[in-house]
């Protein structure tokens, strides 16, 4: 394996993060404010995605329910990708496209937030979840890339999109993870004060 190839991954990752610094800081700040307001009002955050994005949804929920970097009471978050019985029942009885939308309908309440993660912005089941969230009067925070994809057409004016300026899935996922850490840190700072 070429050391230069490995080093190029680091360079590429750093370059995308630096490019995203200016454009994504404001939507991430707005997402933090939105999520904190929902949690402060007794609402919760539902998170979904596919593949690596499903893992990111689980990571986010774990950081809120457990803790991020500081001790605090757990915060209500649910990763919709974790219950295999629910996922397989919905996929079998309805369609794979409905695996998240049906859960949003069952679990979402007005004032809750949906964290919708799709690197392409085109995941049909995530788009269906966004539409279900709107019907449940929820706000959507969408983490996307590749120009935002079809998510751009289904997001409303009150939703927040964090669209990574890259077409490479690996780079998009790396910025999504950084964004998730920013969200968790920001929520904690608002709850506990800046340290």
What do you see in this structure?
The chain has 195 residues and is an alpha/beta fold. The protein has a single domain (3-192), classed as Glucose-6-phosphate isomerase like protein, domain 1 (Rossmann fold). It is built from seven helices and five strands; from the N terminus they run αβαβααβαβαβα. It has helices at residues 3-40, 52-65, 84-93, 101-107, 124-135, 151-154, 169-192; strands at residues 45-48, 77-79, 113-117, 139-144, 160-163. Strands 2-1-3-4-5 form a five-stranded parallel beta sheet, with helices on both faces. Helix 6 (151-154) links the parallel strand 4 (139-144) and strand 5 (160-163). Helix 2 (52-65) runs parallel beside helix 7 (169-192). The longest helix has 38 residues, at 3-40. The termini are far apart. The mean pLDDT is 97.
């Amino acid at each position: 394996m070429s050391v230069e190839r490995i080093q190029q991954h680091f360079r590429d990752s750093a370059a995308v993060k630096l490019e995203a610094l200016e454009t994504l800081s404001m939507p991430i700040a707005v997402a933090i404010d939105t999520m904190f307001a929902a949690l402060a009002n007794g609402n919760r955050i539902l998170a979904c995605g596919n593949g690596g994005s499903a893992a990111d949804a689980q990571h986010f929920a774990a950081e809120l329910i457990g803790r991020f970097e500081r001790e605090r009471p757990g915060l209500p978050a649910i990763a919709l990708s974790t219950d295999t019985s629910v996922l397989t029942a919905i996929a079998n009885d309805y369609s794979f496209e409905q695996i998240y939308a049906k859960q949003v309908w069952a679990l979402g309440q007005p004032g809750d937030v949906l964290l919708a993660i799709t690197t392409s912005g085109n995941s049909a089941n995530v788009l269906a979840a966004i539409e279900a969230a709107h019907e449940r009067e929820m706000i959507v925070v969408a983490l996307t890339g590749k120009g935002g994809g079809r998510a751009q057409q289904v997001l409303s004016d009150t939703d927040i999109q964090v669209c990574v300026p890259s077409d490479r899935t690996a780079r998009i996922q790396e910025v999504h993870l950084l964004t998730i850490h920013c969200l968790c840190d920001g929520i904690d700072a608002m709850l506990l004060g800046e340290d």
